[in-house]
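PROTOCOL LOG
Step 1. Enter all chains and additional molecules of the complex.
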Amino acid sequence: MASVLDKSAIIAPKQFNRWFIPAAALAIHLSIGQVYAFSVFKIPLMAHFDVGEVSVGWIFSVAIGMLGLSAAFGGTWVERAGPRKSMILAGIAWVLGFFVAAFGISTGQLWLVYFGYGFIGGIGLGIGYIAPVSTLMKWFPDRPGLATGLAIMGFGGGALIASPLSNSLMALFGGGTETENLAAGLVPTFITLALSYAVIIAAGAYVIRLPHPDWKPEGWDPSEAKGTAMQTDLNVSANQALKTPQFWFLWIILFTNVTAGIGILENAAPMIQDYFPAVTAAAAAGFVGILSLANMAGRFVWSATSDHIGRKPIYLLYLGVGLVLYLLLALIGNSSLILFILAAVFILSFYGGGFSTMPAYLRDMFGYYQVGAIHGRILTAWAAAGVAGPLIVNTVVEAQAAAGKEGPELYSLSMFIMVGLLAIGLIANLLMRPVAEKHTIEHDNKH
Amino acid sequence: MSTSPQFTEATTADDVSNTYRAVAVILALVVIMGLGYGLVDTAIKAAALFTE
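Step 2. Run joint prediction.
Step 3. Record the structure below.
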């Protein structure tokens, strides 16, 4: 039986202002983007459970792992169910995850926090991340990069909001800013965040609409838009996409670009202090703030730019210029603070841009048919990079420190590894060609 | 196929309801204010890099 959650219930009228839709997409991405602010709970959770950093760190790792898995395995369902049902499911999982975690904190059971925030909440992350993206691209066929940039910018923005908000809430509920106060404020903070996200995601699910079959952007002629060879007007299914080299080249591109970004993000604060000993702890925290802004701005600016210069050229920029900047950091990064900051800012903006441009690149290659499902599967590259990036950087830094090195020398080797990875990504991007017609559903229908 | 009122409203109406418009505008404002709060807070912290 049809319900208000079905695709058929959310077809917009022919005359509809498409600018309502980015707010709906941002609503869920800003909410689930909280996961990147999880570090604000680390010290209070460590104090509350009397455990070490690694034990608490697993909560975030489980959540990101579940993000990758649920996006990969849930993508086809998301395409079938439509954005409203997917957003509601994601919202329920995300909010339920907070409640279960809050129960775990109040009863002193850490495993419930892993299960709640990590496992259940992680499912909400994966489904919520891909739910509005293909819908937005259908509303902006003339500017798919801008559309995905708007939504995925929200994922970066979610942490910028949740980080200070969570600190303020913990201090308010706990009655102070000392660690024991913050720990005491954990449960009401989790419940407050959960209720806020429930309202915002529900509003987003109410506002989301699919375009009417006869709708197209005013003044946009689809026949004129079919000019570039790297943009198909055919469609490839998610299962068939896995059999194309293009999917795996894009997987490598995303993996290398994300790993390179994590190479800076993982150790940003200690890194700038090791390169420039005069930089204070507060200034180093400011550097992390600048990188967060660059990450978020890159998601919108570069993805929107890709609509004008093309997806392949913009990834040549991310990977090629990123490679040069990493080389500069490795070779002469300690010669100038401004050079160091600028290089890191651009690398992080490319990291953000790599995330947000990917759905538009997928649409160019595989069409609209199951682009959400294909996007979900390619996000496994993110999960893999989330493991590989910190592993490379931390292992190298520890090994260099054990060898008696200090300052910039701690990071040089990991930077050269990143240069090598970016070179592999660059080659994968150079190998990108339009998908062969034999893979398309139009070809299957003809035979 | 079912044709419940809420089902047909979205598919046949020429325009969206006032309720829809109000929720959409409020949501857009919440999103903009939230992003503004996050950006300003982060920019203040980031300024420490140049003032400390």
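Step 4. Note key features.
The two ends of chain A are 34 Å apart (CA to CA).
The mean pLDDT of chain A is 91.
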